[in-house]
């Protein structure tokens, strides 16, 4: 370029850079911070309400009675608020769900990440993710009106409302989450590491089981824990298909109510504001929140603890 | 098979062609690699040198669109033969890669990975394998007190020597090296070159390098590749001092590349 012209360009640039205000640079971080704090304040607000209303509840019901097996919130003379039947229901539905979701989800992830051709992956992954997009009420209906009748032919004593059917369906719902997160963890293992193993005469299966999965284990375990947390918090499927029995039982063929199911039942009409029953919702909600928060912390810990540095 | 022949030629490549889809990356390659020789493969980027070396242990077939024709005889047997198991071939023909790629495991577990997956379980024997392999890779003294530390705590040069030890642990016959020093500093590079010099007493080595000085320092024979063709293959000192082909001369004198 001619000397004069490049000198001109330089002048324009130098002028502009001097004149340009840095207002946007100072303003935007504040805007970002404000928008980001919405979620933090919301969370804080929720926790605050859960805690204050739970305190109301515990001033009526001693902790000892809360952690008991007797649950009869609508008994007008002598209401009882033992939460253990609900914990039982939550625990069993979640365990059954994990028994379905972990093996199926992990094998799906292994197949997609290590064995499927690019073409198959491109078709299968979106289809699987559609599973995650189905509204949970549809799953609940599916469990109640399709899976339960089928199971009834296999298990003679199965109640119309039971724990097994929603557990299985909840597991199916969670499969895409386990598969997708585990697949992400496995496909982010560097290709060079796989090559190193192939170069030593490993078969594809050996590379997968002895190199890829150990290297991705933190992400895989974290996906399991997040899936558990999802199962604990899941509401519609269990509300529809596992019913509202408040008996403390270990019989999986019978109805059990989960913590989330309890909240659904009560918020849909029966709890007058200000009653102990009304406040019990907050206590159950708080416990549920603590459970899922604990699971998320476990997920974080697991993914840090088992991370293989590379 | 003739025993005499076996002891001389390790690899004989005959009319090798290779395509990535419709692009031909190797065109009618013919060369022989002799026992205990270091063969350097040089050429500009994209000339097919890495493709070629990865064909020698059929690693190239991990890319699904690759097709080959021609023969590669390894001790007289065609490696493309249907009866050949690639896993078996790769235990005899080890490979070291461009960037050090240890597994995210301990130093010890890295070295014994190969022997372990091939069925060696005896702890004492594995320990012995680890020690001899690390000694052969000139790494033992630096790591003998921390065999259980994660391999990623080592420096880049140490990691690469660990990868060499890992390859040696399965007792191969040939070691293929694909630009093993391209990610290393000059001191680490010098150590690897020194190592190659001692390794060639026991192993046959083929090394891809983009550095002509390196080829000159370490190799007995040099192959010059250009656009998928083997332009010239000769004893290293001959190829560098008295190239027959104009293109070789242009490349080694730095006129292109």
Automatic annotation (TrEMBL), chain A:
<feature type="transmembrane region" description="Helical">
    <location>
        <begin position="279"/>
        <end position="299"/>
    </location>
</feature>
<feature type="transmembrane region" description="Helical">
    <location>
        <begin position="27"/>
        <end position="51"/>
    </location>
</feature>
<protein>
    <recommendedName>
        <fullName>Phosphate transport system permease protein</fullName>
    </recommendedName>
</protein>
<feature type="transmembrane region" description="Helical">
    <location>
        <begin position="167"/>
        <end position="186"/>
    </location>
</feature>
<feature type="domain" description="ABC transmembrane type-1">
    <location>
        <begin position="87"/>
        <end position="299"/>
    </location>
</feature>
<keyword id="KW-1133">Transmembrane helix</keyword>
<feature type="transmembrane region" description="Helical">
    <location>
        <begin position="127"/>
        <end position="147"/>
    </location>
</feature>
<keyword id="KW-0472">Membrane</keyword>
<dbReference type="InterPro" id="IPR035906">
    <property type="entry name" value="MetI-like_sf"/>
</dbReference>
<keyword id="KW-0812">Transmembrane</keyword>
<feature type="transmembrane region" description="Helical">
    <location>
        <begin position="91"/>
        <end position="115"/>
    </location>
</feature>
<keyword id="KW-0813">Transport</keyword>
<dbReference type="Pfam" id="PF00528">
    <property type="entry name" value="BPD_transp_1"/>
</dbReference>
<feature type="transmembrane region" description="Helical">
    <location>
        <begin position="207"/>
        <end position="228"/>
    </location>
</feature>
<dbReference type="InterPro" id="IPR000515">
    <property type="entry name" value="MetI-like"/>
</dbReference>
<comment type="similarity">
    <text>Belongs to the binding-protein-dependent transport system permease family. CysTW subfamily.</text>
</comment>
<comment type="function">
    <text>Part of the binding-protein-dependent transport system for phosphate; probably responsible for the translocation of the substrate across the membrane.</text>
</comment>
<dbReference type="InterPro" id="IPR011864">
    <property type="entry name" value="Phosphate_PstC"/>
</dbReference>
<keyword id="KW-1003">Cell membrane</keyword>
<keyword id="KW-0592">Phosphate transport</keyword>
Automatic annotation (TrEMBL), chain B:
<dbReference type="InterPro" id="IPR017871">
    <property type="entry name" value="ABC_transporter-like_CS"/>
</dbReference>
<dbReference type="InterPro" id="IPR003439">
    <property type="entry name" value="ABC_transporter-like_ATP-bd"/>
</dbReference>
<dbReference type="InterPro" id="IPR003593">
    <property type="entry name" value="AAA+_ATPase"/>
</dbReference>
<protein>
    <submittedName>
        <fullName>Phosphate transport system ATP-binding protein</fullName>
    </submittedName>
</protein>
<dbReference type="Pfam" id="PF00005">
    <property type="entry name" value="ABC_tran"/>
</dbReference>
<dbReference type="InterPro" id="IPR027417">
    <property type="entry name" value="P-loop_NTPase"/>
</dbReference>
<dbReference type="GO" id="GO:0005524">
    <property type="term" value="F:ATP binding"/>
</dbReference>
<keyword id="KW-0547">Nucleotide-binding</keyword>
<dbReference type="InterPro" id="IPR005670">
    <property type="entry name" value="PstB-like"/>
</dbReference>
<keyword id="KW-0813">Transport</keyword>
<feature type="domain" description="ABC transporter">
    <location>
        <begin position="5"/>
        <end position="252"/>
    </location>
</feature>
<keyword id="KW-0067">ATP-binding</keyword>
């Amino acid at each position: 370029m001619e000397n004069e012209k490049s000198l001109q360009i330089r002048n324009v640039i130098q002028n502009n850079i001097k004149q340009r205000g840095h207002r946007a640079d100072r303003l935007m971080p504040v805007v970002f911070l404000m928008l980001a704090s919405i979620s933090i304040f919301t969370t804080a607000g929720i926790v605050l309400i859960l805690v204050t209303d739970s305190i109301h509840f515990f001033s009526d019901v001693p902790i000892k009675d809360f952690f008991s097996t007797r649950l009869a919130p609508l008994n007008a003379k002598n209401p009882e608020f033992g939460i253990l039947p609900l914990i039982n229901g939550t625990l069993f539905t979640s365990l059954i769900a994990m028994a379905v979701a972990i093996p199926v989800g992990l094998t799906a992830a292994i197949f997609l990440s290590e064995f499927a051709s690019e073409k198959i992956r491109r078709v299968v992954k979106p289809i699987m993710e559609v599973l995650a997009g189905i509204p949970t009420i549809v799953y609940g209906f599916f469990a109640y009106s399709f899976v339960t009748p089928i199971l009834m032919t296999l298990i003679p004593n199965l109640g119309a409302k039971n724990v097994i059917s929603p557990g299985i369906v909840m597991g199916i719902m969670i499969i895409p989450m386990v598969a997708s997160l585990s697949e992400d963890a496995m496909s982010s293992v560097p290709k060079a590491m796989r090559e190193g193993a192939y170069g030593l005469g490993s078969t594809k299966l050996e590379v997968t089981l002895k190199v890829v999965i150990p290297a991705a284990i933190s992400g895989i375990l974290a996906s399991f824990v997040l899936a558990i947390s999802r199962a604990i918090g899941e509401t519609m499927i269990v509300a529809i298909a596992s019913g509202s029995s408040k008996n403390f039982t270990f019989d999986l063929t019978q109805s059990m109510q989960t913590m989330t199911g309890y909240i659904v039942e009560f918020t849909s009409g029966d709890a007058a504001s200000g009653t102990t029953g009304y406040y019990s919702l907050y206590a159950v909600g708080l416990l549920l929140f603590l459970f899922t928060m604990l699971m998320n912390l476990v997920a974080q810990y697991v993914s840090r603890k088992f991370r293989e540095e590379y | 098979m003739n025993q005499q022949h076996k002891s001389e030629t390790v690899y004989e490549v005959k009319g090798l062609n290779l395509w990535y889809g419709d692009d031909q990356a190797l065109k009618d390659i013919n060369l022989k690699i002799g026992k205990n020789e270091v063969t350097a493969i040089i050429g500009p980027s994209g000339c097919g040198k890495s493709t070629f070396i990865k064909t020698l242990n059929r690693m190239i077939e991990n890319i699904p669109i690759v097709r080959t024709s021609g023969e590669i005889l390894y001790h007289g047997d065609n490696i493309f033969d249907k009866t050949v198991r690639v896993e078996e071939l790769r235990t005899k023909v080890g490979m070291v890669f461009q960037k050090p790629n240890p597994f995210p495991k301990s130093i010890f577990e890295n070295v014994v990975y190969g022997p372990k997956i091939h069925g060696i379980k005896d702890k004492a024997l594995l320990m012995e394998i680890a020690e001899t392999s690390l000694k052969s890779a000139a790494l033992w003294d630096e790591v003998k007190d921390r065999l259980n530390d994660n391999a990623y705590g080592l420096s880049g040069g140490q990691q690469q020597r660990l990868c060499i030890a890992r390859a040696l642990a399965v007792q191969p016959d040939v070691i293929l090296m694909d630009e093993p020093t391209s990610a290393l500093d000059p001191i680490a590079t010098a150590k690897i070159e020194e190592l190659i010099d001692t390794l060639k007493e026991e192993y046959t080595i083929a090394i891809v390098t983009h550095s002509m000085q390196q080829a000159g320092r370490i190799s007995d024979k040099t192959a010059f590749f250009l656009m998928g063709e083997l332009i010239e293959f000769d004893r290293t000192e001959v190829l560098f001092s008295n190239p027959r082909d104009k293109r070789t001369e242009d490349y080694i004198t730095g006129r292109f590349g």
